[in-house]
Write a structure and sequence with these properties.
41% of the residues lie in helices and 18% in strands. By secondary structure, the protein is of the alpha/beta class. Among the domains are: 99 residues, OB fold (Dihydrolipoamide Acetyltransferase, E2P); 140 residues, 3-Layer(aba) Sandwich (Rossmann fold), CATH 3.40.50.300; 159 residues, Rossmann fold. The strands form four sheets. Strands 11-12-10-13-14-9-15 form a seven-stranded parallel β-sheet, with helices on both faces. Strand 2 and strand 3 form a beta hairpin. Helix 9 crosses helix 24 and helix 10 packs antiparallel against helix 12. The longest helix is centred in the N-terminal third of the chain and has 33 residues. The protein is globular, with a radius of gyration of 32 Å. The chain starts with 11 loop residues before the first helix and ends in a 9-residue tail after the last helix. 39% of the residues are buried. Bound molecules: adenosine-5'-diphosphate (ADP) and magnesium ion (MG).
Length: 696
Amino acid sequence: MQTPITYLKGVGPMRAEAIQKELGIKTYEDLANFFPNRYIDRTQFFKTNQLHTTNSEVQIVGKITHIKEIKQKRGSRLVATFSDEYGSIELVWFKGVKWIKDNLKVNTPYVAFGKVAVFNRQFTISHPELELVTEYKKSLRSGMQAIYPSTELLAKKGVTNRVMFKIMQNLFLEIKNKIGETLSDEIIEKLHLISKKEALFNIHFPKNQEALEKAQFRLKFEELFFIQLQLIRKNLLHKAKIKGYKFEKVGNYFNRFYTDILPFELTNAQKRVLKEIRADLNKNVQMNRLLQGDVGSGKTIVALLTMLIALDNGFQATLMAPTSILATQHYESIKELLKNTDINVALLQGSTKTKERKIIHENLKNGSLHILVGTHAIIEDTVQFKNLGLAIIDEQHRFGVKQRAKMWQKNKIPPHILVMTATPIPRTLQMSIYGDLDISVIDELPPGRKSIKTIHKYDSNRLAVFKFLKDEIAKGRQVYIVYPLIQESEAMDYKDLMDGYESISREFPIPKYQISIVHGKMKPEAKDFEMQRFIKGETQIMVATTVIEVGVNVPNASVMVIESAERFGLSQLHQLRGRVGRGSDQSYCILMSSFKLSDEAKLRLKTMTETNDGFKIAEVDLKLRGPGNLMGTQQSGILNLRIADIVKDSAILKLARDASKYILKKDPNLSLPENRRINYVYSKIIKKQGIWMYIS
Ligand code: ADP
Ligand code: MG
C-alpha cells in the first residue's frame, strides 16, 4: 500500500506529479483513500422511448445505425443515429470529429451515457460517453458512478474523471486483497459494519445506493472513531500524567471575601461551577478546565474566587486577557473589590513603563505580588513568578495553543489552568473537539436582568433610530454604535466608520452630547483614554469597531446599535449584544442593515431577534458556517475530515464516541490482542503528533 502511484498502470511520472501536487496523493494507500465527492446514478437503463428533457443524465443500450458528417461554418459536426428496439436518438460531436468517426463501430452494442437535450425535435446527447457493452461488462463500474474532486490543472494534464476512474480500477485490481481490517471484530459485529475492504471498494464502485450508504457509514464511523479515541485517550493520559499542585484548603482570603466583600449572592450556576473547580484543585493533578458562560453570566467573580483559593494555599495567580482594554477592566474591578484586603494586584501590558515593569518583575519574584493581571505581556520570558499556582485565561480563542503551553512551561509543575470563554460551544463540537476535556457551564444569568430586546431596522429608518437613542440618553443611559471592520476591506470600513462618526457628531452635537471613538488604528493609550471616558460616564455615545466586542463591562450602557449588521457573523453579533443588558434597565440591540440581504444574512438577523440564548445561536452558526471558524477546530483535525461531517453526521459521531469510550475503558493502553488492529492505526496517528498531544 506504500507503493508510489507512479508504478500504477495508467499513471506514469507526469500524471503522478500532477496528482501529487494537486491532491497530495503519493501512495497507493493515499489513492485508495481519495474519495469521490458525488455519484451519478447509473443503476437505471433507459429506453429511447422513455426519455424526457427533465432527465439529467441517462444511459441507453443500443447500436449505431447510421453516421453522417455535416459541414458547418467552422469545421464539421458528427451525427450518429443510435437505436434500440423502441426507436432512436441522435449522438452528436463537435470536437474530435475525425478521430471519433474513424473509431465508431456500426451495428455493435454500446452503452451511451450523457445528458439529453432536444434539438430539431430529436432527443440528442452531445459528446456522450460511449462504451462497448462487452467492455462495460468487464469494467468495475456498477451502478453508481463515482465523480472525483478535481482541479483545473489536473484537467489540463489530462486527468479527467474518466482517467481518474480508470486509475482507480487499476488500483483496486492490484490491491483488492491487500486491504487490511482496521477495527476490532467486536465493534464490527456490534455496529453491523461492513469490512474495511468492502467499504473501500464500495466507496469507489458502489453497485447501488444501499451499498454506497453502507460504505459511507463504515468509513465515516472509522474516521470519527479514531479522532475520538485520540481525544479521549489524550485526556486520560493527561489526567494520569500531568501532576499539579494540591490546593488543600479554602482559607481566610476566600472566606473573608465571600462573607464580607462579595457584593451579591452567587447564582446557583456560579456556586456549582466553583464547586467543580475546587474539586479539581484538590487533586494533585493539573486542572485544565474550560469555563463557559454566556456574556454577562458572571465569570469574572468566579475567576477571582478561584484566585483567592490559590492565594490561600500560598500561591500566586494570574489572569490573562486578550486586549489591553479588557485586561485594564479586569484589573480595575479586581483592585476595587480587593481594596480593603492586603492582597497585592498589578497590571502588566505592552504599554507598561520600564520602571513600573521592573518593580512588577521584582515583586513577582519575591512573592510580594499576589495577583498579576495582564495581556500577552505576561507570557514573556522575563516574567518570572515565585510560585505561580493558577493561570486564568479569559476569552481563549484569542490565544493559540503554543501560547498556552508557554504559560505552563514556566514551572516544573504546571499551574492549574482555567480558561474562560463566552463563546458557547455547540454540543456536537464539544464532543468532537474537546473529547472529555473538563467543561463547566454557567447557564444562568444573575437575577434581575431584563432580557435584551433585539430589533432589526433598515437604513431608511435611521432617523427614528436616532430619535430613540436621544430618548434613551435623556433617561441617563449610554449607547454603543458599532461598525464592522473586516481585514480585507479595512480602508473602506475605516472610511465607513469615520463617515458614521461625522454624521453622528452632527446629529448629536456638543456640548449636549459627548462622543467617544475607539478603533484599531488608534494608539493603545488613546484607546484607553476614550474607553475610560465612556466607562466613567463622561461620554454618552461610544462609536467603535469591534474592538469592544470582548468583555467590556459598562452596566449603564443600554443600547447597542450595530451598523451593517448583515456583515457580522452570528457569534460576533451575539458577543456585541452582550455588551448591553448588564444593568437593571431594559436594554436594546438594534441591528441596522440595507434592504439587500442574502438568505443567510436574513437568517442571522432573524435568529438574533428571536433568541438571546447563546447555545441556540451557536448551533445555528455552526450549521451556517461549518466548524472551520469556531475555536479549537484548527488544532483538532476535525477540519481535515475526509468523509465525515461534524454537523451532518452527529449521530455517527456519538456512536464513535461511545465505542471509543467502551474500548478504552476495557483496554486503556490498547494492548489486548483483540484491539491489535486499532492499536496499530492509533500508533501511526500518534507518531505524527509529537508533544502537542499532551496539551489540551
Ligand atoms: P462575563 O461572564 O460576561 O465575564 P461578568 O463577570 O463581567 O460577566 O459579570 C457581568 C456583571 O454581572 C458584572 O457587573 C458582575 O459584577 C455582575 N454579577 C456577576 N455575578 C453576579 C451575581 N451573582 N449577582 C449579581 N450580579 C452579578
Ligand atoms: Mg468577561
